[in-house]
Amino acid sequence: MNRNAPIKDVLAIVDGWPSSMSAVDQALAYAGQYEATLTVIVITENLSLAAAIDPMAYAQVLTVSDQQQSEHLAAVRERAKNAAIHVEVRGLFEATTLLPGLTKAEGQYADVALIPGADRWQNDGLRRHITEALIFAGVPTLVMPATWKPSPARHVALGWNASLEAFRAARAALNLVEPNSQIDVVIVDGLESAKSGQPLTGMHIARHLARHGHNANVHATSSATRGTAGALQFFAAHQNADLLIVGGYGRSRAVEFVLGGVTRELLGNQRLPILFVH
Fold first, then answer.
1. 199 partner at 20 to 30 Å CA-CA among 29, 54, 109, 173?
2. Among the ranges 56-60, 104-108, 208-212, which has the highest mean pLDDT value?
3. 7: which residues sit within 8 A by CB, 6+ positions away?
4. What are phi and psi of 167, to 5 degrees?
């Protein structure tokens, strides 16, 4: 346990359906490592506005949504009632379009945000929008696969391209990993520099990480067969890294939507825990 890590406030976002309960367990275990306060925000989509033109339908949908929120809040509170750490459970009940912005505001007061990945949300589009909102809030956002069992991070892979987001990701790594950790700095498509004998782009950041007491090495890999997102995940999994850390959204969301991007690919095809830092 890294008791000196500056992790005091952990935020988790779930939708409260049964498929998200394992994410509550993961959040409890993660926050427990740092003896941090855990805030769990249970979001409920207010679908009544879609029926506003029909007073009878509006009232019926509002009643169902209210009941659903109460049930989800009760389920999460029951899950967390025996936690050894301080846990706050709050609900957000709003129109679907407003929920990402509200969760972004919550993220601004957290050291790290946790969010379950695909297959544990009723509305996958909402999952993406909330995850993106948290990333753009500037809070390190850890997307958790269902199979992940939180443990102290002693070996991480850091995706590196010398961007501002990558620098911020490296600083987040210093806060989140254990002392004397293994940090693999991964350069995708940096093979030509390696073959020519020229210093790899990541040598300077590896030296900086080493000065903080970590065992940092630079690795070059190719995107030829898997793409950049696939190459990063394959490397991290092959090296048995506890976590992949990347700078999220080096370009605007609009450009990423039109052209595609590594962040969107990682969010859509995640195979291991990934920490995004913007």
1. 173
2. 208-212
3. 34, 36, 111, 112, 175, 176
4. -60, -40
d(CA 80, CA 86): 9
Rounded Cα distance between 237 and 17, Å, is 29
Using pLDDT thresholds of 50, 70 and 90, give the confidence band for residue 254: very low
**pLDDT reading at 260 higher than 50:** no
Cβ–Cβ under 8 Å, residues 240 and 253 = no
Is the domain 153-277 a CATH 3.40.50.300 member? no
Separation of alpha carbons 187 and 183, rounded Å: 13
Residue 183 is inside which H or E element, if any? strand 177-188
Q: Residues spanned by CATH 3.40.50.620 within the chain?
A: 9-144, 153-277
Distance CA 163, CA 160 (A): 8
Q: What percentage of the chain carries pLDDT values higher than 70?
A: 85
Question: Is 90 exceeded by the pLDDT of residue 252?
Answer: no
Q: pLDDT tens, 184-201? A: 999 998 655 555 566 668
**Around Cβ 212, how many Cβ atoms within 10 Å?**
14
Q: What is the pLDDT of residue 208?
A: 97
| Bridge partner list, 10 | 38, 112
CATH numeric code, 9-144: 3.40.50.620
Pairing state between β 141-144 and 274-277: antiparallel
Q: What pLDDT is stored for residue 64 in this prediction?
A: 66
- CA separation, residue 55 to residues 44, 61, 135, 214, 232 (Å): 21, 10, 38, 62, 52
Which amino acid does the sequence have at 63?
T
Grouping H, G, I as helix, E, B as strand and the rest as coil, residue 109 is coil
